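Changelog-adjacent note: as of this version, every example in the card shows the full chain rather than a window. The one below runs 122 residues end to end.
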Amino acid sequence: MNHILVAFDGSESASRAFDFGLALAAKFGARLHVLAVVRPPEIPEDVETEAMIESAREDYERQLGALQARAAKSKVDTGSAVVIGHPAEQIVRRSRSSITPRRTVSIISCWVTVARHCSAAG
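Full-length structure tokens:
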């Protein structure tokens, strides 16, 4: 196992998933990737959507910064990203990207909607 992808939404479940992913990464010497997905509203209003997305992005970036500090204390190589879109689709897309090669990724997800996609992702 070379790469571990943790989907993070700020919830307590996501924090536990991060802790588990961090422990796995430390144990196996893997790189830990943390992904937060900002989901735009179903019926977007240009100004409101832009403000909501920017606010969520800033909040996730703050939270991911704290997670990276925790990972640094554990001496685990960590990267993070905030993307916009449907969470399940973005998690699967990231797991298949060149950043996290498909054959070496484990997905730990706090979103139930991702469960049906996990087998397809790696």
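Structural remarks: The radius of gyration is 14 Å.
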